[in-house]
Design a protein that fits this description.
The chain is mainly alpha-helical. Helices cover about 50% and strands about 0% of the residues. Pfam families: DUF977 (PF06163).
Length: about 170
């Protein structure tokens, strides 16, 4: 790699650049600082993209449908006393998830808000998604009791490791 200080690169950049354009650096030290700053910006952007991809992957595996991804406790519409109780229980589950492990399962008739509450538990109050934690794995999908028991048994037989395949 050529040495920018001795190769006259800065001078060539000044000559080749249009008259109205000024380089963000004038000396080798400024160039190095500029390179470092640009590299840090790019790293931050890549990290942001990686976080977003991880969240999307987790959401896709969880079964939370796009319809429910913006669900929160504040936009849950309570229509009866049972839903009010479910909302209070879901809020306490969300609080417990931050302090320790807990398990939960929602059951009930279709259209009562089970997926909405599960998605709200996964979301933080400001709408952001929780940082991924292997202990916190919310699965939203319709399934029979026998299927749930098969998945729990497979989880224990697999040494408490997540099953990445066959999440459909």
């Amino acid at each position: 790699m050529k040495n920018i200080a001795t190769g006259g690169v800065l001078e060539r950049i000044r000559r080749l650049a249009p008259p109205h354009v000024t380089a963000p650096f004038r000396t080798v030290a400024e160039w190095r600082e500029w390179q470092l700053a640009e590299g840090q910006k790019r790293c931050e952007e890549i990290n942001r993209q990686n976080r977003q991809l991880r969240v999307e992957k987790i959401l896709n595996r969880s079964g939370i449908q796009p319809l429910h991804r913006k669900c929160s406790f504040s936009n849950y519409q309570v229509q009866n006393e049972g839903q009010r109780y479910a909302l209070s229980q879901a809020k306490s589950i969300a609080d417990e998830l931050m302090t320790g492990c807990t398990n939960f399962a929602f059951s009930g008739k279709p259209g009562t808000g089970k997926n909405h509450l599960a998605a709200a538990i996964w979301s933080l109050p400001d709408g952001e998604i929780r940082r991924y934690d292997r202990r916190l794995n919310i699965i939203c999908r319709e399934c029979r009791k026998s299927e749930v028991m098969q998945r729990v048994l497979a989880f224990y037989q697999n040494g408490f490791r997540e099953r990445l395949g066959d999440q459909g």
